[in-house]
Amino acid sequence: MKLQDRVALITGAGTGIGRGIAETFARQGVKVAVNYSRSRDAAEEVVREIRAAGGAAVSIGASVADDREVRGMVDQIAGEFGRLDILVNNAGWSTRIPHDRLEDLTDEVWNRTFDTNLRGAFYCVRAAVPLLRKQEGASIVNIASVAGMTGLGSSMAYAASKGAMITMTKSLARALAPAIRVNAIAPGFVRTRFADWPSSAFDEGEAMTPLKRLATVEEIAALAWHLAVEAKSITGETIAVDGGVAELGAIRLNVSR
Questions:
Q1: From CA 59, how far away is CA 90, in angstroms rounded?
Q2: DSSP β-ladder status, 31-36 and 7-10
Q3: What number of other Cβ atoms are within 10 A of residue 212's Cβ?
């Protein structure tokens, strides 16, 4: 399916899952706004690669935790492309804190986690909705985490923020229907730089999943495309991509995405 006229904003798209989603959408002909907060060089590299392959893309620096910057980013997209069809809320932040070390969950950690992972996603939705409503088939995909289902993850604050994102996905799906579909993906442990997990943690996590394998960035990106474009009768859904952990259990590490 080629959608050369459509435009997607992917937050946190310079690295990891966000980058994979941006590249996948661009290969399908979608014009892509590659958002970054700190990874400017990486985001600009993504844009160069998309353009070199014949696609259209721009990089936009903005902190999703800052409502003014988010609104400016959406205004820039409107000026550059004149429309917005798809929003992927991928930007996230976490730091590894064992769940039993409650004193280490400082206000700074709680605030940064929720400002980026939850409030930031809401800011992006709120700013994007006026543009999205103008396009038939508009959609939003939130990148949550299996941590929001299991209570595991890099920190208790991270798990709570992703659990809240899953709930917010349902609320937004009701509030924005029928004009805009809203769904979420809940990745499990994925081999990216997120939260600076050591390679040994990925190996151990893979061995403990029911399927004995971790999901890949490419698999997450393919599902994001399906939910954003093809799944026209699906809204309010959260799909776990985690080797069976959320439904079948087994993993005991605090290692969810």
A1: 15
A2: parallel
A3: 11
Number of domains forming the structure of the chain = 1
pTM (predicted TM-score): 0.91
Question: Which CATH number fits the domain that encloses residue 237?
Answer: 3.40.50.720
Q: Which two tokens stand for residue 91?
A: 């930007």
Q: Which residue has the higher pLDDT, 237 or 212?
A: 237
DSSP element (H, E) containing 247: helix 245-248
Q: 208: how many CB neighbours lie within 10 A of its CB?
A: 17
Q: Give phi and psi for 174, each to the nearest 5.
A: -70, -45
Q: Among residues 25, 81, 93, 158, which one is catalytic?
A: 158
Give the C-alpha separation, 190 to 220, whole Å. Answer: 9
* Annotation says 158 is catalytic: yes
Could you tell me if 58 and 34 are in contact, meaning their C-beta atoms sit under 8 angstroms apart? yes
Boundaries of domain holding 166: 7-248
At 159-195, the pLDDT tens digits run 999 999 999 999 999 999 999 999 999 998 786 766 5
